[in-house]
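Entry 14. Structure prediction run on the chain below.
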Amino acid sequence: MSSPELQIECPCCKAKLVVDSETGGVLQATPHKEAPLSLESFLKADQTRAKDLEDKFAESRRVEDSRLAMLEKKFEWAKKNKDKLPDAPMPGIQWD
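Output returned:
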């Protein structure tokens, strides 16, 4: 007779799972621990971190500026073409 427990390694996250063979339920899950980064790789990543953050900030600034410009264009168009805009819809509930 086989053991009632199966030890399996997850192919995605490399966690170790202990599974009950009869019910298929997970009895224990041990997450995979990555080795800590070496000091050299940490310092190398830290040197590029400031530039990466500046690039992300510049990109978000550009996106916000373009959003503001688009809203200004829409507002100006609505002011010029206010007679072409539909009337505001009536509320769904009439209280009187």
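The mean pLDDT is 86.
Filed with the rest of this week's runs.
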